[in-house]
Amino acid sequence: MTLHAESMLCEDGPLSRRLVGFEMRPQQVEMAKLVEETLAKRGRLLVEAGTGVGKSFAYLIPAIARAVEAKERVIISTNTISLQEQLIEKDLPLLRAASSHEFSAVLARGRGNYLSLRRLRLASERQERLFPDEEERHQLHAVEDWAIETRDGTLSSLPVLRPESIWEQVQSDTHNCMGKRCPTYDKCFYQSARRRMENADILVCNHALFFSDLAMRARGRGFLPDYTHVILDEAHEIETVASENFGSRLSESGVKHFLRTLVSNSGKGYLPQLRLAKAGFERIEQAVRCVELSEQAAEGMFNDLWNLAKNGSSDPESAGEQRVIGANAVVDSLSEPMKNLAGMLRFLRESAEEADQFELNAFAERADSFALASQSLVAQNIPGCVYWIEGGRKNKRSGRAAVSLQAAAVDVSPLLREQLFSKNISVVLTSATLATSLNDFSLASRRLGCDDAKTVQLGSPFDLARQVKFIIDATMPDPTDQHFEAALANRIVRHVRETDGGAFVLCTSLATMERVARAVESDFARDGHPFFVQNRGMPRNIMLDRFKEDSRSVLFGVSSFWQGVDVRGDGLRNVIITRLPLESPYKPLTKARGEKLAGEGGDSFRDDQLPRAILRFRQGFGRLIRSSQDSGRVVVLDSRIAKKNYGRAFLKALPEGVVPEIDEGEGIDPPSFQD
User: 631, exposed or middle or buried, with CB in 10 Å at 0-12, 13-18, 19+?
Assistant: First the structure.
């Protein structure tokens, strides 16, 4: 029986008999028909689906039909883990039952997410030398217990706390895989997952894996099985993810952690425990000396990077993000010692036991990758990239912060056009926020290289004009005013009290968030509001769960809470936007994009920064209403939305029927919101 989206989604269709509270939504049916048409023609589609459209069913039903009836594999990529879990654990099983169509759907993960049973056994045998810390050995024993019980061997199913040092020693890895010669090959979690992936009709993955695979395919090898159709949900994030994957990164913490895995500060680690067949001790000493030279080189190079970044930073305690213009701004002192270390590790492999030959090979490959990254980033020879140094706040003990040297693609559109949109496959991009105003997809089309894609904007089926009270505080001082943060704290307390909590306070800066959070903390404690602040040590998912447990909670968050967070019902009834989410024009990637636009006759603010901020603003606004029963207020505490000409662009992007209420105060002329 042919599977048609329209018949599945109608009032008396199969889905209505399986899903409690099902309602036919015209926007959902329209989107499903658009996706059906796109997959049939191997076309290109950008479709914005407002909150409540039910876009996952709208693309899953055509995807299942295509996979089952045409025997064509479909990739579905998302940005967040929560959406992947929803698709795999809820939506796809429900559609399998409702459609009576048999199909296989698999969650694709990167290889490093799987446990290697052989490496776990090896780590257990050598634990005294590999893990000098008793707590680490305790964690290893917990992993051993879990390995007996686990069905899939994935990191996400590991219930215990796990230091990175433990997982690195037991995870599956390309470079130390023995293949069919491995004694645990028949039980291998990764190989089992690989077989399921190869046989799957539908693969669900995250954007990071999808674009990493795309970058690998450009070099002649991919990780994911071949596919005929790709559906990218949460597509407003793909430019950022693609930009990172087409660039490079060298982090001080990553380099030093790698070297300390080989030889720890206490003289333990992988190399000291190594047993070689003959003339072994002298060779190991030489390898240890290579590690020491690499450590010295790393310390010197990252110290130079810190000093270079500090010279351009206005904050005496932090390096921030400092662009590096021109090659060889620092001496690449790291690549040569790392190459020598890689060579020495391969030399050790010749007289090592078989199990260690694979481990040494993996270590050598990692040393080579660090050498290549150092060489490429210092010489700035990755085409189309902007380069910068990133550092946090100064550590009192060391006198500086750990830093990283990074590169990201300034413009991913030619890369995506060549490696994705020019292929003979279907590509569907969808999100609740792709357009910057009514039917204006110009930013997404231009930045992603899909100029010839069909674009459709589908509004929310919810009655947002009734459900949302939208308040603008026009009495707030400008964000650059010295009194802005004090006024912010005052207004936040007032608005939180008016709804008795149930509030998200969305910030654009960690530093500002923390200062304002400290200023309001005693008020919330006195009022009895459970109070959560991002970046204070509590994991994001746990903080969100705790917020949901008490309807009087207040949560302060930055970028990750502006999107991908779903709090239904009375738990969230107040979203406070502290500042319009305009990126700093001095951020390296923002500045480089602006320079490219200016060279093409464009304007950085008008054509790039403002449209991006509007999309983020719409994401933040969208946190409030997640169902037809939700209601509440969105409060904007940035008066520029009412006083600056560009503020109108944000207001034009509001859902139809939502009208701002202006708190004008005394002596402030009411702004005109008309064009």
Answer: middle
Say how far apart CA 468 and CA 445 lie, in whole Å. Answer: 30
Cβ atoms < 10 Å from Cβ of 417: 15
Tell me the sheet residues that pair with 76. 204, 231
Domain 5-104+200-242+412-458: what homologous superfamily? P-loop containing nucleotide triphosphate hydrolases (3.40.50.300)
pLDDT tens digit sequence for 223-275 = 899 999 999 999 999 999 999 999 999 999 999 999 998 998 877 888 988 87
Q: Which residues contact 286 (CB under 8 A, 6 or more apart)?
A: 344
According to DSSP, residue 419 is labeled I
Pull the structure tokens for residue 520. 């309001």
Distance separating alpha carbons of residues 434 and 445, to the nearest angstrom:
9
Distance CA 315, CA 317 (A): 5
Task: Collapse the DSSP code of 174 into the 3-class scheme (helix H, G, I; strand E, B; otherwise coil) and give the result.
Answer: helix
| Ranges of each domain in the chain | 5-104+200-242+412-458, 464-663
CATH number of 464-663: 3.40.50.300
**Among candidate residues 249, 388, 380, the one with its CA nearest the CA of residue 309:** 388
| Overall pTM surpassing 0.85 (yes/no) | yes
**478: CB partners within 8 A, 6+ apart:** 484, 639, 640
Q: Where are the alpha helices (DSSP H) in 184-279?
A: 189-199, 207-218, 238-245, 252-262
Q: Cβ contacts of residue 509 below 8 Å, gap of 6+?
A: 558, 579
